[in-house]
Amino acid sequence: MPLIFCAPRAPSANGMYIGDGCGENGDNSVYRCSTCDYDLHVKCAFLKKTVDRVDPEHPLTLYYSNPYQDTGVTFECDVCHHNIPSNSWIFCCLDCDNGTHVNCVSGKERPKAAVQFEKLAAAQQELMNLQIKMQTKTMTTNAIFQGKMMTVNAILHSSTGCYRFCGDATRDAI
Q1: Which domain of life is it from (predicted)?
Q2: C-beta separation of 84 from 60 below 8 A
Q3: Prior bond to 8 cis, omega within 30?
Q4: Helix, strand and coil in the chain, % to nearest 5
C-alpha cells in the first residue's frame, strides 16, 4: 500500500504520532500507510540517500533499519552516543563502522564522557526517587500498624478491663 500524504493533521485522535523512520514524535503533516500502520515525517520522506560528514572519511548511507540487525549487534550513534533502535532508520558507513540517528546526522558530536555522566546522573536521580518512594511506603505502613495497635489497646482497655496487660499501671482491675 502506498504512503498517503495527510495534512495538516496527523492520523491519531490527538494529532500526535511517532515517525517510524526516526522514532521521533510528530504532530504535523505525515505520510501514512493505514494498512501497515506506518507513519513518516515529511522531512524523513525527503532525506538524502547519502550524507557527507566531517568525522568519518566516507559518506554515510541511509539504511531503513540496522544493517547489523541479523547479527544481534546494537548500533550506537557516533554523535549522541545513545543506542539506535534496530527498526529505526540510520545513516552509516559499513566500511568504517560509523553511524548516526537520522536526526543526529547534521549535529555536532558530543563527548562520550559527557553522555555517560548524563546517564549516571539520571540513574542516580531514579535511585533517589525509588528510595523516597520506599521510605514513604514504610512510613505509611508503620503509621497504619501503629493505628491498629492503638485500636487493639483501646478495645482491650474498654472491653476486658485488663489494664495491666495494656501497660496502664494506674489501674489495678483484672
Answers
A1: Eukaryota
A2: no
A3: yes
A4: 35, 20, 50
| CA-based nearest residue to 79, from 52, 44, 46, 55 | 55
Any idea which residue has 504512503 for its cell? Answer: 3
Q: How far apart are CA 11 and CA 26, in angstroms?
A: 10
Domain extents for the chain?
Answer: 1-46, 47-110, 111-174
- Longest CA–CA separation in the chain, Å: 94
With 60 as the cut, is the pLDDT of residue 88 above it?
Answer: yes
Distance separating alpha carbons of residues 55 and 60, to the nearest angstrom: 11
Report the relative pairing of strands 60-63 and 83-84 from DSSP bridges. unpaired
Instruction: Report the alpha-carbon distance of residue 172 to residue 169 in Å, rounded.
Output: 7
DSSP annotation of 103 reads G
Using an 8 Å Cβ cutoff, are 162 and 172 in contact?
A: no
Q: Among 35-39, 52-56, 82-86, 135-139, name the one with the lowest average pLDDT.
A: 52-56
Amino acid in position 105 = V
In this structure, how many other beta carbons lie within 10 angstroms of the beta carbon of residue 92?
Answer: 24
> Comparing C-alpha atoms, which of 24, 10, 164, 13 is closest to residue 88?
24
Residue 174: band (very low, low, confident or very high) from pLDDT cuts 50, 70, 90: very low
pLDDT-derived band at 90, boundaries 50, 70, 90: very high
